[in-house]
Design brief:
This protein is α+β, with helices and mostly antiparallel strands. It has one domain: Nucleotide cyclase, GGDEF domain (Alpha-Beta Plaits, 2-Layer Sandwich). The protein contains 3 helices and 8 strands. The strands form 3 sheets. Strands 3-6-8-7 form a 4-stranded mixed beta sheet. A two-stranded antiparallel ribbon has the order 1-2. The chain has a two-stranded antiparallel ribbon with strand order 4-5. Strand 7 and strand 8 form a beta hairpin. Helix 1 packs across helix 3. The mean pLDDT is 93.
Length: 125
């Protein structure tokens, strides 16, 4: 899991996440493990989260909330080596870049415990 805007807020958080996702796909394009190609699925959503440190013996910083769950569902329903995004993320990216992001609509996607959502594959040339 990766997050942008915690604890410091960034006005270009969507652009940063889209760029990071693209760079991860490029960096792992030819990655193999024990001779097997590794394919990644990436899911991105934006919105509020709750963050905090948990644990008494071993501390861990974790995130919770609907935004985290939606991003996770986008990842699990995504396609290999693709960036599966929500409409909310596309809107944030559009506002931050000042132009319409290149994205392929994949229509209504059933997200576990969430219902139907219009989703897109982000095209990062």
């Amino acid at each position: 899991m990766a997050v942008c805007g915690i604890p410091k807020k960034y006005s270009d958080h969507a652009f940063r996440m889209a760029s990071f996702a693209r760079d991860v796909l490029i960096a792992t394009k030819d990655f193999t493990f024990n001779g097997y190609k590794v394919d990644l699925r990436i899911g991105i959503h934006c919105g509020p989260v709750i963050a905090g440190v948990i644990g008494l013996q071993k501390f861990a910083y974790d995130l919770w909330g609907d935004s985290v769950n939606i991003a996770s569902r986008l990842e699990s329903t995504g396609k290999p080596n693709a960036i599966h995004v929500s409409g909310d993320f596309l809107e944030a990216l559009k506002k931050q870049s000042g132009r319409e992001p290149k994205a392929l609509s994949i229509g209504s996607t059933e997200l576990k415990n969430r219902g139907i959502m219009e989703t897109y594959l982000l095209q990062m040339d």
